[in-house]
Amino acid sequence: MVYARRNKGSGRTGTMDGKWVRNAWYVAGWSHDLAPGRIEARTIIEQPLALYRKGDGGVVVLEDRCCHRFAPLSMGRLEQDDLRCMYHGLKFAPDGRCIEIPGQKLIPQSACVRRYPAEERGGWIWVWMGEAAAADPASIPDSVRLSDPAYCMRSGQMDYAAHYLLIDDNLLDLSHLTFAHEKTLGLDMPQWADERPRIQPLERGLRVQRWLRNQPSRGFMRRWGEVLDLWNSYDFLFPGIFLLRTAFYPAGTADRWNRKEPDEAPLFLRYDDQAVTPIGDRTARYFYAAGARSADIDAERVGRLFAIVEAAFGEDKAIIEAQQKLIDLDPSRRMLPTSLDAGPTQFRKLVQVLLDRDGQPGPMADSQVKAS
After folding, report:
1. 81 CB neighbour count, 10 Å cutoff
2. Which domain holds residue 121?
3. pLDDT by residue (tens digit) across 238-253?
4. What is the average per-residue pLDDT within 169-190?
5. d(Cα 21, Cα 42) in Å, to the nearest integer?
6. Are residues 113 and 155 in the same domain?
7. Same domain, 122 and 143
8. Minimal CB count within 10 Å: which of 43, 55, 145, 349?
9. Cis bond before residue 117 (omega within 30° of 0)
10. Domain assignment present for 17
């Protein structure tokens, strides 16, 4: 498994500290968390950001550092669509230009802060951390819009004291569900390792698909039989966008489709949208949402499902943070790769390619999971 400072050998655990892909879209937060009239401080790939909304609701993302004395602009105040630094009073327009310096009429052209391209898609606020001219909103992958009444979703987030790629590794190898989540997501499920996934390359990620046959039904799904076949398909895109669709079918469907991708409506379709955002070398934020179509599930059932999901993510957090501590005790020590590491290994190679070319953007036209 590659967790390396430009090391090509699989299994190396030296870190990628301080090496970031800048030309990429990162999730800065949930749309509903950025309230009008407030300034929110965020950090992405070690860069401090100040986020706020203009009067028309549009999102502004500025460098969280006044060009005068480097005071945080997130500690400032909003004046209509402008942001005033509350240390010495410099005022900045939404494009980052300084438009007022108290006691000084002349405003030099160098009096400005960087503005980052930002978009709202699905339930997330996305920020492009690289060259503004290279930002292409069309490359942002589709996710479920939490405010869409057609869906019943719950959302949350948690912070990790670990490198973001360790979280990515976890999401790219779901065989851990059987063990790390034996009392939550993996309850009553066979070993996922016995059902090998098909992995397809995407422009900036991977598509991972597998059938799980004859799975025990739970709760309201027992109306369709004691066992069901599950089609599990997700796209995993840089830097850690996880778009999972789990479709439930009558037992025997997997064999009828020769274990290939089904082209028929499922009995039930579950949605899981997640995003991993690196903050620093040992900090990352994990955003997650889970649910289904409103016609298929009610808020009470989504609440029960989400409680299990959050409990499982707490289990992931505990083991990954413990893993990070052991890695840091001996960063040069090599992990023992297994055949189940195909997804994490392929994705680590992709990350290295993006680092080598500084994240030059590519199309994501083929980055949507089917069965939506």
Report:
1. 14
2. 33-127
3. 999 999 999 999 999 9
4. 77
5. 18
6. no
7. no
8. 55
9. no
10. no
181 and 284 in a single domain? The answer is: yes
Start-to-end Cα distance in the chain: 32
Query: What is the Cα–Cα distance from 230 to 212, expressed in whole angstroms?
Result: 5
The model's confidence at residue 219, banded by pLDDT at 50, 70 and 90, is confident
pLDDT digits (tens, 9 = 90+) for 47-71: 999 999 999 999 999 999 999 999 9
- In the β-sheet with 151-160, what is the strand arrangement from edge to edge? 151-160, 283-293, 268-280, 241-250, 227-237, 205-216, 198-202
> What is d(CA 101, CA 174) in angstroms, rounded to the nearest whole number?
55
Q: Is 19 a member of any domain?
A: no
Does 245 reside within a domain? yes
* Within-domain flag for 99: yes
At residue 76, the 3 state secondary structure works out as: coil
Mean of pLDDT values over 321-328: 96
d(CA 236, CA 225): 31
- Alpha carbon distance 65, 68 (integer Å): 9
Q: What does the mean pLDDT of the chain come to? A: 89
CATH number of residue 47's parent domain: 2.102.10.10
Number of domains in the chain: 2
One domain for residues 336 and 290: yes
CA dihedral 339, 4, 164, 116 (to 10 degrees): -130
